[in-house]
């Protein structure tokens, strides 16, 4: 495709440049409107500048991708309500054997969770809990936050539902869920383990410091309470009941008051004499009861008419005092308080069973969705169907659940589709690709390396989703000229490199920004993950993990 007219090229570059600035720097000083408004602004300018027609703008919106995003969001919301992420949090601290073991668990759990529930969702849910565990064990938060962000990005590369760019690749390429999983999952496993090893080597000295040397505070508990995983609140300490104090303790407590106030002294002495008198009365009552219990051998003789005989004959029977007391106790009707407690216990048990059945249904429906995806069914409609079934089985108004869906992200994608399609119509991306394409063919090691560098740089400059939209069809067409298998391999290379490229800088992935913001705003456990602290680890980790993963993806 040749370059369009000069005015169209200039105006298209202006519209795309505004979109890029808003997407990469959402709080830019001269227009802090955010990414969503920035994408809509770029789309509107593409139409106003006549770079793209209104009809083409509507057609540029990829509805299957929007549907797949919506379905996975709803399923993730229900999984969060069903305490799936709370169980994942408990898994991190369950029988932890120290700081290095905890770091390794964060890498593994966040990677597998991101492959199934998207990396952004996992980072939102797990960031504050990981901060809490690190602080309670007097550990530095930085390695654990980096482990969460980087492992979530690497793990999300394994499945089409792990991140937005993989959704685009799966829909555009037509690669099934199973083929995608087989092609990238081995690279993901090796990549996560490699990233964990780099983290351990990089922070070995900090993780090896004894807890008592890191701070003068005593060791905190290794395991966090279940309800704190999701609520992130401290539970107040329980107060001891006053009746647990013995009389001596009461005397000890009242002594300072007696010394300080003469009026209170007389009152306290009065009360104390009353308490002593009452104790004496109690002792007398106990002695009388003991005396009566000693007379258990004596029996009470009573006469009752014998119903078998109509005469005045009577028969005698005897009851001991203990038997009389037992009869009195048995004859007493149950108190209304006991009945109320039993009803409350029955209601609590019934509610517990309902919650258990509901959670089981959520997990089974999610498992069914994954099985359907592995069977090769349409990914978009499969996710939407699972979402609608969950909404129907909730038996409540769906508004509360649907309000948690990130509609701003869906709108951002719509605006981005229009903006990128308009930029493609200027002819600039195609012209630049024609310069690089002869040297970046995937049938040679040098070509794969150059293609990976282009994807890596462009993903951090223009973000990974626009990179996939700009390069996807061009890379696939170049590989299709080699063989049909090479085309699928090119899509998988694009998926792997564009996802892992998010670990290069703090701005390279939305998951990184989520971890940074969640950690900074965390109550009681706030931590500022800076751009440079991420970059120092991100550069070597991204290069090594990308290179190792490429060797595995190419061999598929």
UniProtKB/TrEMBL annotation:
InterPro entries: Cit_transptr-like_dom (IPR004680)
Gene Ontology cellular-component terms listed: plasma membrane
Transmembrane segments: 9-28, 59-79, 102-131, 181-204, 361-393, 405-423, 448-471, 491-515, 535-554
Topology of this chain in the membrane: Multi-pass membrane protein
Subcellular location field: Cell membrane
Organism name: Urochloa decumbens
Annotated stretches, region: Disordered: 297-323
Domain spans labelled Citrate transporter-like: 27-501
Chief localization: membrane
One Pfam entry name: CitMHS
Organism superkingdom: Eukaryota
RNA-binding keyword on record: no
Phylogenetic placement of the source organism: Eukaryota, Viridiplantae, Streptophyta, Embryophyta, Tracheophyta
Keywords: Cell membrane, Membrane, Transmembrane, Transmembrane helix, Transport
CDD domains assigned to the protein according to its UniProt record, in alphabetical order: YbiR_permease (cd01117)
Protein name per UniProt: Citrate transporter-like domain-containing protein
PANTHER family: TRANSPORTER ARSB-RELATED
